[in-house]
């Protein structure tokens, strides 16, 4: 039986960062954190209780993040991040199955290696190989 890889994170674009943060914290009680230019003005959303190392405590729960919406990107929208054991192997499988990688893997400090892809239907998702602790 093939191993199943879990969805561990969600991502969505935003237009106005402060408005976004206020909305999700007021409506859902999420803890929002903003980052600067060095992290692409990313905003993290802590939707559930996490351990000291930032991992969710309750299986099945996930946290997320928001990135600035980009002009001219027509199909930018919500996506999911899938945790894999070996990002290189997962990238090879994506190519072989007809998917398209959207760049090269980048290291997210303290988190792991990350790369986005499009599936055969044009949906954008991402891979994350968590850092070894």
Brief overview:
The protein is of the alpha+beta class. Helices cover 17% and strands 35% of the residues. It has helices spanning 17-28, 87-96; strands spanning 7-14, 31-34, 43-46, 63-68, 79-83, 100-101, 106-108, 112-118, 124-130.
Fold and architecture overview:
The protein folds into two domains: 76 residues, 2,3-Dihydroxybiphenyl 1,2-Dioxygenase, domain 1 (Roll), CATH 3.10.180; 50 residues, 2,3-Dihydroxybiphenyl 1,2-Dioxygenase, domain 1, CATH 3.10.180.10. Strands 1, 2, 3, 4, 5, 6, 7, 8 and 9 form a nine-stranded mixed sheet that branches. The mean pLDDT is 90. It has two helices and nine strands; from the N terminus they run βαββββαββββ. 17% of the residues lie in helices and 35% in strands. With 133 residues, it is α+β, with helices and mostly antiparallel strands. The longest helix is centred in the N-terminal third of the chain and has 12 residues.
């Amino acid at each position: 039986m093939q191993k199943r890889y879990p969805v561990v994170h969600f991502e969505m674009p935003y237009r106005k960062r402060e408005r976004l943060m206020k909305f999700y914290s007021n409506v859902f009680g999420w803890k929002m954190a903003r980052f600067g230019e060095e992290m692409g003005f990313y905003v993290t959303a802590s939707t559930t209780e996490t351990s000291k190392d930032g991992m969710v405590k309750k299986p099945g729960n996930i946290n997320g993040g928001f990135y600035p919406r980009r002009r001219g990107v027509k199909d930018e929208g919500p996506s999911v991040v899938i945790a894999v054991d070996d990002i290189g192997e997962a990238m090879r499988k994506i190519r072989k199955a007809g998917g398209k990688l959207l760049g090269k893997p980048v290291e997210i400090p303290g988190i792991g290696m990350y790369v986005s892809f499009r599936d055969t239907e044009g949906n954008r998702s991402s891979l994350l190989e968590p850092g070894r602790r």
